[in-house]
Amino acid sequence: MLALTGRGKVSGYEPVFDLLRNAERRAECSHYDDAVARLYRATELLAQTRLRLQYGLNTSDLATAKLPEPLREPYAARCDPDGTLRLGLQAAYGLLSDLGDPLGTAFISVSGPLNNALVRRNHSILAHGSAPVGQTEYHALHTQLRALIDAARSTIKLGREPAQFPTLTEIAP
User: Fold this and answer.
1) Contacts of 28 (CB under 8 A, 6+ apart)
2) What DSSP assignment string belongs to 53-74?
């Protein structure tokens, strides 16, 4: 809790784990659409946080001048007409991969199954579709996000994951 408020030892990745734990609590209540939306955001935030902490890059307005020389022109070509470059989830992990970052490499190692789970999320009513998301889709995305985190854990300093909050039945049975 102290890490989330900035008063404890922090790695910078605490909001990612907060979203992950929150998604788990939502799934426990069978709110799978909500849980999957939070897992998607946690996946996206993981890449955004890595780019910000390690490279000083902002995916909402990527400064191509901060990129290594060989990457500047290809990324500058992707800018909006107003000169802004915004990176979504896939593009953020693509940039990490282009930078040779271990999280980008970890994403590639789980990208097939993770992308399948993310596509299912896109059909959710809370994303771009109208289909409800069930327990199966939640578990698929949760498993793949865990695989990504586990694959990256040994090479980047993610910090310690917080424990899950106790449920009401655990507090007062």
Assistant:
1) 167
2) HHH---TTS--GGGS-HHHHHH
Identify the domain containing residue 156 by its residue range. 12-164
Look at the chain and report how many structural domains it folds into: 1
Q: What backbone phi and psi angles, to 5 degrees, belong to 123? A: -85, -5
* Residue 130 in domain: yes
> What are 59's two structure tokens?
């995916």
Q: How far is CA 64 from CA 48, 98, 121, in A?
A: 15, 13, 30
The reply to whether 114 falls in a domain is yes
| Interval 26-57: pLDDT, tens | 999 999 988 988 998 999 999 999 999 999 99
Per-residue model confidence as pLDDT tens digits over 116-173: 666 666 666 556 666 777 888 889 889 988 889 888 887 887 766 656 656 544 544 5
Tokens representing residue 42 in the block: 């946690």
In a domain, 1, yes or no: no
Q: Let me know if residue 6 belongs to a domain.
A: no
